[in-house]
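Let us work through a complete example step by step.
Step 1: write down the sequence.
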Amino acid sequence: MSSRVLAALFVLLSARGALAQETVPPAGDPNAPAMERVTFDEAVRRALDRNPTVGEAAQAILRAEALLDDARTVFHPSLDGVVGTTVIDAPRGFAGNITQPRTQTSFGAAISYPVFAPARWAEKTQAADQVGVARFSAEDIRKQVGLAAAEAYLAVLNEQRQLGIAIRNRETAAALEEFARIRLDAGQGSRLNHVRAAQELATGEAAVQAQLFRLRQAQEALGVVIFAGAPVDAADDPQLAVPAEPPAGDAWLLERPDVRLSSAQLAAADRVAGDVWKSWLPSATAVFAPRYVTPAGFFEPADTWRAAIELRVPIYDNALRAEKRLRVAEREIFQLRLDAVKDRARSDLRLAREAVTAAERVVEASRQAAENAADALRITEIAYRAGATTNIEVVQAQQAARNSELVFALAEDRRRQARLQLLVALGQFP
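Step 2: predict the structure and record it as tokens.
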């Protein structure tokens, strides 16, 4: 047996025992362009900046603001200009006086201002409420888009870790296969041991190739989420710091975009229901209309003006009663939705905190199990080199170590997911 093989075997097994967690880059075409790598914060930011849904939400805010500007016109006067020319078949008059010229042009204007318009004034406040609803809706959409980007990023990290484990298992199996072959060539081993080692090497190679494809799938998904136009790799492990103490009271609920959105919708619906009675109130409009006519008529001077106050009083409109019932029903619906959102938010927080606590315990237990399995594999391999056992025990120890390391990697991924969900439940992400 060569010292080179033993040295390589020792280095590989030592690396397994240390449970190295660095990312192993996927094997691929060396001539292919380097894949873009982004950090966690950059991935979330790019998703928020480029997602068309977020852009649509921003346009919805602009639309609501435009409607608010339109509703504000109730506080501004309106000015209309009128120019008209009247032509009749022949002038009219008597006793040689023309009372109505054959062609007469008039220039007029009308300035009006709603001096009392409670229903329209209420519409302005209601439009302002809708601007707030649109903004909170945009925040809720941003949360969903940011969460999708974060989950895609964490999926790439998990697949990177799985690939690293698969590559280390394949390299260990390759070292043991070479060791078994050298012993067989030297007449010190059996063909059965070499066949078993070769089988493990082939299994490890298949696992690496399958994991390479799963990693590429995750990278493609991340590239789609952040609109990169190509697969994107994860560059770092995000530090998702979570609060140690649970929040006091329900003040934290207002940090959640969905609660703020439902609260704004309820407030808007409550205002609309409360303003229905204003439609029964009278409205008054002041009008001033100057007029110039040329040529002037006998009974009509060239310069005239008219000022008036128009008062409208609704006497009978049965639709107002139905509208009142409709608005009250809508308000109750939004109240039920807000109560449901708050209940779900409290449940999300409880489950997220329990998930973080459980994930921390599972990670620690899985770490210990993986370290023990790696030690057991190292001892088994030493005994195998010493001839104290067959490679059946080595294969079993390899499988146990591989499974323990996979469980440990999955536990770390679940811990990251649990921390992310806790931040989302608290309204602190993105």
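Step 3: interpret the result. The beta strands are 36-38, 78-87, 92-94, 97-100, 103-116, 232-234, 283-294, 303-312.
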